[in-house]
Design brief:
Elements lengths: L29 E7 L1 E2 L11 E2 L9 H21 L7 E8 L7 H15 L1 E11 L6 H10 L3 E7 L3 H6 L8 H11 L3 E8 L6 H13 L4 E6 L7 H7 L8 H17 L3 E4 L2 E3 L7 H7 L3 E5 L4 E4 L2 E5 L3 H9 L5 E6 L2 H12 L6 E2 L5 H12 L5 H5 L2 E2 L3 H5 L1 H8 L2
Helix pairs in contact: 1-2, 2-3, 6-8
Protein backbone atom coordinates (compact mmCIF):
# COMPACT_ATOMS: atom_id res chain seq x y z
CA UNK A 1 0.00 0.00 0.00
CA UNK A 2 1.99 3.03 -1.25
CA UNK A 3 1.86 5.98 1.11
CA UNK A 4 0.84 8.57 -1.52
CA UNK A 5 -2.91 8.75 -1.98
CA UNK A 6 -4.43 9.30 -5.44
CA UNK A 7 -6.51 12.28 -6.40
CA UNK A 8 -10.26 11.95 -6.74
CA UNK A 9 -13.60 13.44 -5.84
CA UNK A 10 -14.58 14.09 -2.25
CA UNK A 11 -16.04 11.03 -0.53
CA UNK A 12 -19.37 11.50 1.30
CA UNK A 13 -19.18 11.63 5.07
CA UNK A 14 -21.84 8.93 5.46
CA UNK A 15 -19.94 6.46 3.25
CA UNK A 16 -22.98 5.72 1.08
CA UNK A 17 -22.05 4.43 -2.37
CA UNK A 18 -23.69 5.30 -5.70
CA UNK A 19 -26.30 2.93 -7.13
CA UNK A 20 -23.86 1.22 -9.51
CA UNK A 21 -22.05 -0.35 -6.53
CA UNK A 22 -25.03 -2.56 -5.79
CA UNK A 23 -25.66 -3.65 -9.38
CA UNK A 24 -24.59 -7.26 -9.87
CA UNK A 25 -23.02 -7.45 -6.40
CA UNK A 26 -24.60 -10.82 -5.63
CA UNK A 27 -22.52 -12.34 -8.45
CA UNK A 28 -19.24 -10.85 -7.22
CA UNK A 29 -17.00 -12.10 -4.45
CA UNK A 30 -16.56 -10.02 -1.29
CA UNK A 31 -13.49 -9.76 0.91
CA UNK A 32 -11.96 -7.64 3.64
CA UNK A 33 -8.51 -6.10 3.79
CA UNK A 34 -7.29 -4.84 7.18
CA UNK A 35 -4.25 -2.56 7.13
CA UNK A 36 -2.12 -2.62 10.28
CA UNK A 37 0.20 0.39 9.94
CA UNK A 38 2.82 -0.55 12.55
CA UNK A 39 6.41 -1.71 12.09
CA UNK A 40 9.22 -2.30 14.58
CA UNK A 41 11.52 -0.35 12.24
CA UNK A 42 10.92 1.24 8.86
CA UNK A 43 12.70 -0.73 6.14
CA UNK A 44 14.88 1.36 3.85
CA UNK A 45 13.08 0.29 0.66
CA UNK A 46 9.52 0.65 1.97
CA UNK A 47 7.12 3.28 0.65
CA UNK A 48 4.05 1.87 2.42
CA UNK A 49 1.88 3.78 4.87
CA UNK A 50 3.56 2.50 8.03
CA UNK A 51 4.72 3.95 11.35
CA UNK A 52 6.84 2.84 14.27
CA UNK A 53 5.29 2.75 17.72
CA UNK A 54 7.19 5.87 18.81
CA UNK A 55 5.62 7.94 16.01
CA UNK A 56 2.04 7.54 17.20
CA UNK A 57 -0.03 8.01 20.32
CA UNK A 58 -3.55 8.62 21.51
CA UNK A 59 -6.30 6.87 19.58
CA UNK A 60 -3.79 5.83 16.91
CA UNK A 61 -1.55 3.87 19.27
CA UNK A 62 -1.00 0.16 18.86
CA UNK A 63 -2.95 -0.48 22.05
CA UNK A 64 -6.01 1.41 20.77
CA UNK A 65 -5.84 0.31 17.15
CA UNK A 66 -8.02 -2.81 17.26
CA UNK A 67 -10.92 -0.84 18.72
CA UNK A 68 -10.58 1.81 16.02
CA UNK A 69 -10.51 -0.82 13.27
CA UNK A 70 -13.60 -2.51 14.71
CA UNK A 71 -15.34 0.88 14.56
CA UNK A 72 -14.64 0.99 10.82
CA UNK A 73 -15.99 -2.55 10.41
CA UNK A 74 -19.23 -1.38 12.02
CA UNK A 75 -19.27 1.75 9.84
CA UNK A 76 -18.64 -0.33 6.71
CA UNK A 77 -21.46 -2.75 7.41
CA UNK A 78 -23.91 0.13 7.92
CA UNK A 79 -22.71 1.98 4.81
CA UNK A 80 -23.10 -1.08 2.59
CA UNK A 81 -26.63 -1.67 3.89
CA UNK A 82 -27.53 1.98 3.30
CA UNK A 83 -26.13 1.69 -0.23
CA UNK A 84 -28.41 -1.25 -1.05
CA UNK A 85 -25.50 -3.65 -1.51
CA UNK A 86 -26.81 -7.17 -0.79
CA UNK A 87 -25.44 -9.03 2.21
CA UNK A 88 -22.56 -11.33 1.26
CA UNK A 89 -20.38 -13.54 3.39
CA UNK A 90 -16.66 -12.87 3.46
CA UNK A 91 -14.80 -15.21 1.12
CA UNK A 92 -11.35 -13.88 1.97
CA UNK A 93 -9.83 -11.74 4.72
CA UNK A 94 -6.29 -10.38 4.57
CA UNK A 95 -4.40 -8.57 7.34
CA UNK A 96 -1.50 -6.62 5.81
CA UNK A 97 0.79 -3.80 6.74
CA UNK A 98 3.10 -2.90 8.22
CA UNK A 99 3.47 -5.90 10.45
CA UNK A 100 0.04 -7.08 11.65
CA UNK A 101 1.60 -9.48 14.16
CA UNK A 102 3.12 -6.60 16.12
CA UNK A 103 -0.38 -6.38 17.59
CA UNK A 104 -1.33 -9.04 20.12
CA UNK A 105 -3.00 -12.06 18.52
CA UNK A 106 -6.06 -11.27 20.62
CA UNK A 107 -6.40 -7.89 18.88
CA UNK A 108 -6.25 -9.45 15.41
CA UNK A 109 -8.76 -12.04 16.56
CA UNK A 110 -11.09 -9.30 17.82
CA UNK A 111 -10.97 -7.53 14.46
CA UNK A 112 -11.74 -10.77 12.63
CA UNK A 113 -14.55 -11.62 15.07
CA UNK A 114 -16.19 -8.23 14.45
CA UNK A 115 -16.05 -8.68 10.69
CA UNK A 116 -17.55 -12.16 10.88
CA UNK A 117 -20.26 -10.91 13.22
CA UNK A 118 -21.38 -8.34 10.65
CA UNK A 119 -20.95 -10.23 7.39
CA UNK A 120 -20.52 -13.89 8.24
CA UNK A 121 -17.83 -15.94 6.59
CA UNK A 122 -18.09 -18.48 3.80
CA UNK A 123 -17.28 -22.11 4.45
CA UNK A 124 -13.62 -22.74 3.66
CA UNK A 125 -12.82 -19.01 3.54
CA UNK A 126 -9.19 -17.94 3.35
CA UNK A 127 -8.02 -15.76 6.27
CA UNK A 128 -4.42 -14.55 6.00
CA UNK A 129 -2.11 -12.42 8.07
CA UNK A 130 1.25 -11.12 7.01
CA UNK A 131 4.01 -11.49 9.60
CA UNK A 132 7.69 -10.95 10.06
CA UNK A 133 9.51 -14.12 11.15
CA UNK A 134 10.56 -12.43 14.39
CA UNK A 135 7.06 -11.11 15.22
CA UNK A 136 5.46 -14.47 16.03
CA UNK A 137 5.71 -17.16 18.67
CA UNK A 138 4.30 -20.69 18.77
CA UNK A 139 1.64 -19.41 21.15
CA UNK A 140 0.60 -16.41 19.02
CA UNK A 141 0.27 -18.57 15.91
CA UNK A 142 -1.81 -21.11 17.81
CA UNK A 143 -4.05 -18.30 19.02
CA UNK A 144 -4.50 -16.95 15.49
CA UNK A 145 -5.39 -20.40 14.16
CA UNK A 146 -7.92 -20.88 16.95
CA UNK A 147 -9.48 -17.52 16.04
CA UNK A 148 -10.07 -18.60 12.44
CA UNK A 149 -6.92 -17.61 10.60
CA UNK A 150 -5.97 -20.18 7.96
CA UNK A 151 -2.80 -18.79 6.41
CA UNK A 152 0.31 -16.77 7.29
CA UNK A 153 2.52 -14.94 4.81
CA UNK A 154 6.04 -14.43 6.17
CA UNK A 155 8.20 -11.56 4.94
CA UNK A 156 11.36 -13.61 4.45
CA UNK A 157 12.80 -11.38 1.67
CA UNK A 158 16.25 -13.05 1.72
CA UNK A 159 18.26 -15.74 3.48
CA UNK A 160 21.54 -13.82 3.15
CA UNK A 161 22.59 -11.61 6.09
CA UNK A 162 24.20 -8.81 4.08
CA UNK A 163 21.12 -8.55 1.84
CA UNK A 164 18.83 -8.38 4.87
CA UNK A 165 21.01 -5.59 6.28
CA UNK A 166 20.64 -3.50 3.11
CA UNK A 167 16.87 -3.98 3.33
CA UNK A 168 16.88 -3.09 7.07
CA UNK A 169 15.14 -6.35 7.92
CA UNK A 170 15.21 -7.21 11.62
CA UNK A 171 15.13 -11.02 11.58
CA UNK A 172 18.01 -13.48 11.36
CA UNK A 173 17.89 -16.02 8.49
CA UNK A 174 17.60 -18.99 10.84
CA UNK A 175 14.35 -17.57 12.25
CA UNK A 176 12.45 -18.30 9.02
CA UNK A 177 12.40 -22.13 9.16
CA UNK A 178 11.64 -21.91 12.87
CA UNK A 179 8.63 -19.64 12.28
CA UNK A 180 7.43 -21.83 9.42
CA UNK A 181 7.60 -24.90 11.67
CA UNK A 182 5.56 -23.10 14.33
CA UNK A 183 2.93 -22.10 11.76
CA UNK A 184 2.75 -25.67 10.47
CA UNK A 185 2.28 -26.95 14.01
CA UNK A 186 -0.62 -24.52 14.40
CA UNK A 187 -2.24 -25.91 11.25
CA UNK A 188 -1.68 -22.79 9.14
CA UNK A 189 -0.83 -22.67 5.45
CA UNK A 190 2.45 -20.86 4.80
CA UNK A 191 3.54 -18.41 2.13
CA UNK A 192 7.03 -16.91 1.90
CA UNK A 193 7.67 -13.50 0.35
CA UNK A 194 11.02 -12.90 -1.33
CA UNK A 195 12.63 -9.81 -2.87
CA UNK A 196 15.25 -10.02 -5.62
CA UNK A 197 17.56 -7.38 -7.03
CA UNK A 198 18.69 -5.80 -3.76
CA UNK A 199 21.85 -3.72 -4.25
CA UNK A 200 24.83 -5.98 -3.67
CA UNK A 201 22.85 -9.22 -4.04
CA UNK A 202 24.73 -11.68 -6.27
CA UNK A 203 23.19 -14.41 -8.39
CA UNK A 204 24.55 -16.90 -5.84
CA UNK A 205 22.92 -14.96 -2.99
CA UNK A 206 19.57 -15.13 -4.74
CA UNK A 207 19.91 -18.85 -5.35
CA UNK A 208 20.66 -19.38 -1.66
CA UNK A 209 17.49 -17.49 -0.73
CA UNK A 210 15.38 -19.56 -3.11
CA UNK A 211 16.86 -22.85 -1.97
CA UNK A 212 16.41 -21.88 1.69
CA UNK A 213 12.79 -20.94 1.06
CA UNK A 214 12.13 -24.22 -0.73
CA UNK A 215 13.76 -26.19 2.10
CA UNK A 216 11.02 -24.79 4.37
CA UNK A 217 8.44 -26.54 2.15
CA UNK A 218 5.97 -23.63 1.95
CA UNK A 219 2.65 -23.85 0.14
CA UNK A 220 3.16 -20.60 -1.74
CA UNK A 221 6.03 -18.29 -2.73
CA UNK A 222 5.90 -14.67 -3.89
CA UNK A 223 9.00 -13.17 -5.51
CA UNK A 224 9.06 -9.44 -6.21
CA UNK A 225 11.67 -7.34 -7.96
CA UNK A 226 12.96 -4.57 -5.72
CA UNK A 227 11.62 -1.19 -6.84
CA UNK A 228 13.42 1.90 -5.62
CA UNK A 229 10.77 4.39 -4.55
CA UNK A 230 11.67 8.06 -4.39
CA UNK A 231 11.82 9.43 -0.87
CA UNK A 232 12.95 6.17 0.71
CA UNK A 233 16.18 5.67 2.63
CA UNK A 234 17.44 3.24 0.00
CA UNK A 235 16.82 5.74 -2.81
CA UNK A 236 18.92 8.28 -0.94
CA UNK A 237 21.71 5.74 -0.39
CA UNK A 238 21.83 4.94 -4.10
CA UNK A 239 21.80 8.63 -5.01
CA UNK A 240 24.77 9.25 -2.69
CA UNK A 241 26.65 6.26 -4.13
CA UNK A 242 26.64 4.37 -0.82
CA UNK A 243 25.12 1.26 -2.43
CA UNK A 244 24.97 0.27 -6.10
CA UNK A 245 21.86 0.85 -8.17
CA UNK A 246 19.59 -1.86 -9.55
CA UNK A 247 19.78 -3.36 -13.01
CA UNK A 248 16.90 -4.55 -15.23
CA UNK A 249 18.97 -7.35 -16.76
CA UNK A 250 19.88 -8.57 -13.29
CA UNK A 251 16.18 -8.58 -12.38
CA UNK A 252 15.33 -10.60 -15.49
CA UNK A 253 18.02 -13.21 -14.80
CA UNK A 254 16.93 -13.58 -11.19
CA UNK A 255 13.27 -13.91 -12.17
CA UNK A 256 14.19 -16.68 -14.60
CA UNK A 257 16.18 -18.41 -11.85
CA UNK A 258 13.20 -18.22 -9.51
CA UNK A 259 10.85 -19.63 -12.11
CA UNK A 260 13.23 -22.50 -12.89
CA UNK A 261 13.96 -23.50 -9.29
CA UNK A 262 10.36 -23.15 -8.17
CA UNK A 263 9.18 -25.15 -11.16
CA UNK A 264 11.69 -27.91 -10.46
CA UNK A 265 10.36 -28.04 -6.88
CA UNK A 266 6.79 -28.59 -8.07
CA UNK A 267 5.48 -25.02 -7.90
CA UNK A 268 3.43 -23.50 -10.72
CA UNK A 269 3.19 -19.80 -11.47
CA UNK A 270 -0.37 -18.47 -11.48
CA UNK A 271 0.43 -14.74 -11.49
CA UNK A 272 3.62 -13.08 -12.69
CA UNK A 273 5.10 -12.77 -9.18
CA UNK A 274 3.39 -15.71 -7.48
CA UNK A 275 3.82 -19.48 -7.44
CA UNK A 276 1.74 -22.12 -5.63
CA UNK A 277 2.32 -25.78 -4.88
CA UNK A 278 -1.24 -26.64 -5.96
CA UNK A 279 -4.20 -24.57 -7.24
CA UNK A 280 -5.69 -24.81 -3.74
CA UNK A 281 -2.62 -22.98 -2.40
CA UNK A 282 -3.05 -19.90 -4.59
CA UNK A 283 -3.78 -16.70 -2.66
CA UNK A 284 -7.51 -16.29 -3.20
CA UNK A 285 -7.56 -12.81 -1.70
CA UNK A 286 -5.07 -11.47 -4.23
CA UNK A 287 -6.89 -13.30 -7.03
CA UNK A 288 -10.00 -11.36 -6.02
CA UNK A 289 -8.09 -8.11 -6.62
CA UNK A 290 -6.83 -9.27 -10.00
CA UNK A 291 -10.31 -10.42 -11.05
CA UNK A 292 -12.06 -7.21 -10.02
CA UNK A 293 -14.16 -8.53 -7.13
CA UNK A 294 -15.35 -6.36 -4.23
CA UNK A 295 -13.49 -5.65 -1.01
CA UNK A 296 -13.62 -3.17 1.84
CA UNK A 297 -10.26 -1.90 3.07
CA UNK A 298 -10.04 -1.15 6.80
CA UNK A 299 -7.34 1.14 8.19
CA UNK A 300 -5.46 4.37 7.42
CA UNK A 301 -4.65 4.68 3.73
CA UNK A 302 -6.54 1.47 2.91
CA UNK A 303 -8.21 1.23 -0.50
CA UNK A 304 -11.62 -0.31 -1.18
CA UNK A 305 -13.54 -1.32 -4.32
CA UNK A 306 -17.20 -2.19 -4.76
CA UNK A 307 -18.83 -2.42 -8.18
CA UNK A 308 -16.55 0.01 -9.97
CA UNK A 309 -16.45 2.50 -7.10
CA UNK A 310 -13.00 2.88 -5.55
CA UNK A 311 -12.16 4.89 -2.46
CA UNK A 312 -9.24 5.33 -0.07
CA UNK A 313 -8.98 6.29 3.58
CA UNK A 314 -7.15 9.23 5.04
CA UNK A 315 -3.48 8.40 5.36
CA UNK A 316 -2.53 9.34 8.90
CA UNK A 317 -3.66 7.04 11.73
CA UNK A 318 -4.53 9.95 14.04
CA UNK A 319 -6.81 11.56 11.44
CA UNK A 320 -8.28 8.13 10.67
CA UNK A 321 -9.11 7.46 14.32
CA UNK A 322 -10.60 10.93 14.81
CA UNK A 323 -12.99 10.61 11.86
CA UNK A 324 -14.32 7.32 13.16
CA UNK A 325 -14.75 8.79 16.66
CA UNK A 326 -16.80 11.55 15.03
CA UNK A 327 -18.99 8.98 13.25
CA UNK A 328 -17.67 10.00 9.83
CA UNK A 329 -16.37 7.98 6.94
CA UNK A 330 -12.57 7.77 7.07
CA UNK A 331 -12.44 8.02 3.27
CA UNK A 332 -10.29 10.82 1.89
CA UNK A 333 -11.55 10.53 -1.68
CA UNK A 334 -13.09 8.24 -4.25
CA UNK A 335 -13.49 7.68 -7.96
CA UNK A 336 -16.27 6.11 -9.99
CA UNK A 337 -14.62 4.09 -12.72
CA UNK A 338 -16.00 4.52 -16.21
CA UNK A 339 -16.26 1.66 -18.70
CA UNK A 340 -12.95 2.41 -20.40
CA UNK A 341 -11.04 2.51 -17.10
CA UNK A 342 -12.61 -0.74 -15.94
CA UNK A 343 -11.67 -2.40 -19.22
CA UNK A 344 -8.10 -1.09 -18.97
CA UNK A 345 -7.77 -2.52 -15.47
CA UNK A 346 -9.36 -5.83 -16.47
CA UNK A 347 -6.81 -6.35 -19.23
CA UNK A 348 -3.88 -5.03 -17.20
CA UNK A 349 -4.55 -7.38 -14.28
CA UNK A 350 -5.90 -10.45 -16.06
CA UNK A 351 -2.95 -10.51 -18.46
CA UNK A 352 -0.67 -11.19 -15.50
CA UNK A 353 -2.53 -14.41 -14.64
CA UNK A 354 -1.47 -17.79 -15.99
CA UNK A 355 -5.03 -18.47 -17.17
CA UNK A 356 -4.80 -15.33 -19.29
CA UNK A 357 -7.53 -13.48 -21.17
CA UNK A 358 -10.07 -14.70 -23.74
CA UNK A 359 -8.88 -13.17 -26.99
CA UNK A 360 -12.50 -12.64 -28.03
CA UNK A 361 -12.93 -10.24 -25.09
CA UNK A 362 -10.21 -7.88 -26.35
CA UNK A 363 -10.84 -4.74 -28.36
CA UNK A 364 -10.08 -4.94 -32.08
CA UNK A 365 -6.62 -3.43 -31.58
CA UNK A 366 -5.75 -6.06 -28.99
CA UNK A 367 -6.93 -8.85 -31.27
CA UNK A 368 -4.77 -7.53 -34.10
CA UNK A 369 -1.74 -7.51 -31.78
CA UNK A 370 -1.94 -11.25 -31.08
CA UNK A 371 -0.06 -12.42 -34.19
CA UNK A 372 2.85 -10.11 -33.45
CA UNK A 373 2.99 -11.17 -29.81
CA UNK A 374 3.17 -14.81 -30.90
CA UNK A 375 5.95 -14.01 -33.38
CA UNK A 376 7.98 -12.30 -30.65
CA UNK A 377 7.43 -15.26 -28.30
CA UNK A 378 5.61 -13.16 -25.73
CA UNK A 379 2.43 -15.27 -25.60
CA UNK A 380 1.88 -19.00 -25.87
CA UNK A 381 0.94 -20.06 -29.43
CA UNK A 382 -1.09 -23.13 -28.45
CA UNK A 383 -3.17 -21.13 -25.98
CA UNK A 384 -3.72 -18.37 -28.55
CA UNK A 385 -4.92 -20.85 -31.16
CA UNK A 386 -7.37 -22.13 -28.52
CA UNK A 387 -8.64 -18.59 -28.01
CA UNK A 388 -6.78 -17.63 -24.84
CA UNK A 389 -3.95 -15.12 -24.45
CA UNK A 390 -1.38 -16.40 -21.94
CA UNK A 391 2.14 -15.13 -21.32
CA UNK A 392 5.34 -17.05 -21.95
CA UNK A 393 8.31 -16.66 -19.61
CA UNK A 394 9.65 -13.93 -21.90
CA UNK A 395 6.20 -12.35 -21.88
CA UNK A 396 6.12 -12.31 -18.10
CA UNK A 397 9.38 -10.37 -18.11
CA UNK A 398 7.78 -7.85 -20.47
CA UNK A 399 4.22 -8.01 -19.12
CA UNK A 400 3.73 -4.24 -19.07
CA UNK A 401 4.75 -3.96 -22.72
CA UNK A 402 2.35 -6.77 -23.67
CA UNK A 403 -0.52 -5.03 -21.89
CA UNK A 404 0.17 -1.75 -23.75
CA UNK A 405 -0.24 -3.56 -27.05
CA UNK A 406 -3.53 -5.13 -25.98
CA UNK A 407 -5.17 -1.85 -25.02
CA UNK A 408 -6.93 0.52 -27.45
Amino acid sequence: MPSTLPEGEKAPADGVLPAQAAAGAAERGFGLYAHIPFCAVRCGYCDFNTYTAKELGGGASQAAYAGTAVAEVEFAAAALRASGVPERKLQTVFFGGGTPTLLPAADLAAMLKAAVAHWGIAEGAEVTTEANPDSVTPESLQELAAAGFTRVSFGMQSAVPHVLRVLDRTHQPERVPQAVAWARAAGLQVSLDLIYGTPGESAADWQVSLETALACEPDHVSAYALIIESGTKLAAQIRRGEVPGIDDDDHAEKYATADRLLGEAGFTWYEVSNWARTPADECRHNLAYWRGDDWWGIGPGAHSHVGGVRWWNVKHPIAYAQRLRDGLSPAAGREILDASTRELERVMLAARLAVGIPIASLADGGKRAVAGLIARELIQPAAAFAGQLALTLKGRLLADAVVRELLP
